[in-house]
């Protein structure tokens, strides 16, 4: 059996070494792309979408990501048709991030798949891991929200501005606060 590469480990959620040459090259490519993309504020959404398709794993029809936009690798990000990400979105995509069709994301939202060992010796050794984030369709995420590793947000959910989402959000639910908790339906 062939040993997994650090990239394969990273994408499968296993501990990996982020300084691996293949991962470092992918990160350099993403940083160079971000310099170009983040200079396109005055460009049309169609012009920016062409650039998005150079890096992201999937870009749906009519998807809009307003610069500045920041990511680790880009290639592990999938955005559906009609997705809108406002200014200053951060996606740490050491694991896959999927954002469903028609989802609206406010400014300054962060999707953080990266995780670190709780054991201090493992942290000292320089390993980390990641867990995927999945956001359903027609979700509204308010400005400044944080979506943490391993979270799934169901279709039609609402994440309040500034919420810190540490657990899954059911379809149709509204969550607010730190940590995010459901609002009662009323």
UniProtKB/TrEMBL annotation:
Record keywords: Acyltransferase, Nodulation, Repeat, Transferase
Domain Maltose/galactoside acetyltransferase: 7-61
GO molecular-function terms, A-Z: acetyltransferase activity; O-acyltransferase activity
Region ranges (Disordered): 1-22
Tree of life domain: Bacteria
Pfam families: Hexapep, Mac
One Gene Ontology CC term in the entry: cytosol
Keyword Repeat annotated: yes
CDD domains tied to this protein: LbH_MAT_GAT
Hydrolase among keywords: no
Cross-referenced PANTHER family: ACETYLTRANSFERASE C18B11.09C-RELATED (PTHR23416:SF23), SIALIC ACID SYNTHASE-RELATED (PTHR23416)
Family the UniProt entry places it in: Belongs to the transferase hexapeptide repeat family.
Functional description taken from the UniProt entry: Acetyltransferase implicated in the O-acetylation of Nod factors.
Protein name in the entry: Nodulation protein L
Native source species: Methylobacterium phyllostachyos
